[in-house]
Amino acid sequence: ALPKRVRIHEVGPRDGLQNEKTVVPVEVKTEFIQRLAAAGLDTVEATSFVHPKWVPQLADAEELFPRLGGLGVRLPVLVPNLRGLERALALGARQVAVFASATEAFAEANLNRSVDAALEMFAPVVRRAKGEGVEVRGYLSMCFGDPWEGPVAPEHVVRVSRALVDMGCDELSLGDTIGVATPGQVTALLEALTAAGIPVGRLGVHFHDTYGQALANTLAALQQGVSTVDASAGGLGGCPYAKSATGNLATEDLVWMLRGLGIETGVDLRKLCSTSVWMAERLGRPSPSRTVHALTGP
Ligand code: HMG
Ligand code: MG
């Protein structure tokens, strides 16, 4: 049976904007997040407290985060290490995310260390965050395929997922970072994770739409009992390590499918579309979302 309600974890301002060539001014980011909240998204990943040289697009985190007070929504932020966590806590962040990799190649490329060394880096971060009563999400990248290593065996994903849960992560987000997964793989991975004792209620999915499979993969995950889905308004972003420039699953496309299935999200699709059109104008290129086109085009 499908879930009655899905919690959308909006990642446009973070995963979307981190992959844009243009650095978006802090005023525009602020308005973007305000508009996403006004459209009914109750979880909006705001930014990352990472090294500014690694992700210059999000180097303004200290300026941005304090502008978001009073929105009444959850505003998770990415923190790779204790330095990042301290920066986030100092500004009052109440939800943070660490980001692990299922593959060695991506751990090196993204975090400058091995899979296990990255997990060692996260352990004190999760401990300290939990000690402060802060919620922790654990991202897991390259769960299905990796640009350097090829297909990823579910055993690797299970091992790192187990480590993140044992560390204290409240929720995991399974990332198809380069968007190569197909629905059969999604079903198989979720079955492997549940067989390993990881409750499906703690799992979210994070699909990229490189091969147009993101919605099909989402439906496969919903059929396995997943009820947290990551998406990016307007399908913003991409992955610097994927050949194609297509971004995350577009939030509008997701909402359209869920609405048709009678699954509640609390999102006002019209408001969301006009936000994505507005953002696309700021970025100087149209939104790749089919739903945005269908609802706002000529
Ligand atoms: P490193 O170079 O190994 O770090 O990078 P280090 O610990 O050796 O420190 C080097 C310098 O960085 C030092 O400064 C530190 O103070 C500074 P120096 O002494 O040279 O002046 N530093 C920091 N500065 C600010 N904030 C910090 C911080 N930490 C260290 N938090 C590090 C290691 C993890 C920092 C680096 O690799 C990094 O920042 N990586 C971030 C990469 C990133 O953000 N990637 C995108 C997010 S993941 C993703 O998008 C996938 C996802 O969407 C899911 C999916 O689709 O799969 C989540
Ligand atoms: Mg991503």
Give a short overview.
With 298 residues, this protein is of the alpha/beta class.
How would you describe what is shown here?
- With 298 residues, this protein is α/β, with parallel strands linked by helices.
- Helix content is 43%, strand content 14%.
- The protein contains twelve helices and ten strands.
- The protein has helices at 12-18, 26-38, 61-64, 82-90, 104-111, 115-131, 154-167, 183-195, 214-223, 251-260, 269-283, 290-296; strands at 7-10, 47-48, 77-78, 95-101, 135-141, 145-146, 150-151, 171-176, 203-207, 228-231.
- The strands form two sheets. The protein has an eight-stranded parallel β-sheet, sandwiched between helices. The chain has a two-stranded antiparallel ribbon with strand order 6-7.
- Strand 6 (145-146) and strand 7 form a beta hairpin.
- Helix 6 runs parallel beside helix 7 (154-167) and helix 7 (154-167) packs across helix 8.
- The longest helix is centred in the middle third of the chain and has 17 residues, at 115-131.
- The termini are far apart.
- The model has no long low-confidence stretch (mean pLDDT 96).
- Bound molecules: 3-hydroxy-3-methylglutaryl-coenzyme A (HMG) and magnesium ion.
- Magnesium ion binds at residues 15, 175, 177, 206, 248.
- It holds the Pfam family HMGL-like.
- GO terms for molecular function: hydroxymethylglutaryl-CoA lyase activity; metal ion binding.
- Residues 6-273 form the Pyruvate carboxyltransferase domain.
Radius of gyration of CA atoms, rounded to a whole number? 17 Å
Low-confidence stretches: none
In spatial order, strands of the major sheet run 1-10-9-8-5-4-3-2
Secondary structure: helix percent:
40-55%
Decide which structural class fits the backbone. alpha/beta
* CA-based shape: globular
Mean pLDDT: 96
User: What percent strand?
Assistant: 5-15%
Instruction: Give, in order, the helices and strands.
Output: EHHEHEHEHHEEEHEHEHEHHH
Number of helices: 12
Instruction: List cofactors, ions and other ligands.
Output: 3-hydroxy-3-methylglutaryl-coenzyme A, magnesium ion
Number of DSSP strands? 10
Termini, distance in Å? 38 Å
Largest sheet: 8 strands, parallel
